Amino acid sequence: MATVIIPTPLRKFTGQKTKLEAEGSSVKEAIEDLALNFPDLKKHLIDDNGRLRTFVNIFVGDDDIRDLQNESTTLKDGSVISIIPAIAGGSH
Fold this sequence. Notes:
Helix content: 10-25%
Strand order of the largest sheet: 2-1-5-3-4
CATH superfamily: Beta-grasp domain
Number of helices: 2
Order of helices and strands: EEHHEEE
């Protein structure tokens, strides 16, 4: 089982929980498990094709999954997954 760190903007979909447990041997399976248990969260993480949304950054430990095997990144028992939504902005 992995621990998933939920960012503040998404906590309203998880009953204000900051951390959740998710089953799965890969990032994709863990995110699907999370979406199954928190259906309102699903649309913010997974697109209509079942893929992770491009504006959602996911880390396993300190590593961006894009630098690993993306959604197929293997999880170990006790892995920590951090969901980091992209932040737009800046100055002109």
